[in-house]
Specification:
This protein has 98 residues and is an alpha+beta fold. The chain has three helices and four strands; from the N terminus they run αβββαβα. It has a four-stranded mixed beta sheet with strand order 3-2-1-4, with helices on one face. A hairpin with a 3-residue loop joins β1 and β2. The longest helix is centred in the C-terminal third of the chain and has 19 residues. The radius of gyration is 18 Å and the shape is elongated. The termini are far apart.
Length: 98
């Protein structure tokens, strides 16, 4: 679903729960089953949705979700934590050797 449609559904109290991922992906559940267009143009009939937030600051979205009493959680995709962990392990060794 388009991000703007998602925000519209929040404002119309049609979103039940949301999961915000650190890579910008968003999925969740609507209060009822609806028919909507995905971003790729396909038509979907479901009470579940996915969208993508293109902004790095999701504080306004989190505020809106809270104001509209939507249950929401943040989740890490885990992809970046592997590379950060690897860098934290290797960097001190390189500094000592180097």
């Amino acid at each position: 679903m388009a991000y703007s449609d998602f925000v519209g559904y929040i404002n119309n109290n049609a979103v039940k729960s949301v999961t915000l991922y650190d890579d910008g992906n968003i999925d969740g559940q609507l209060t009822t089953t609806i028919t909507y267009k995905q971003q790729d143009g396909t038509t979907v009939t479901s009470d579940k949705f996915t969208t993508f937030e293109h902004f790095s600051n999701d504080a306004p979205l989190q505020t809106l979700l809270t104001e509209k009493h939507v249950l929401w959680v943040n989740k890490s995709t885990g992809a970046s934590s592997f590379w950060i962990g690897l860098a934290e392990y290797i960097l001190p060794i390189l500094l000592l050797v180097g």
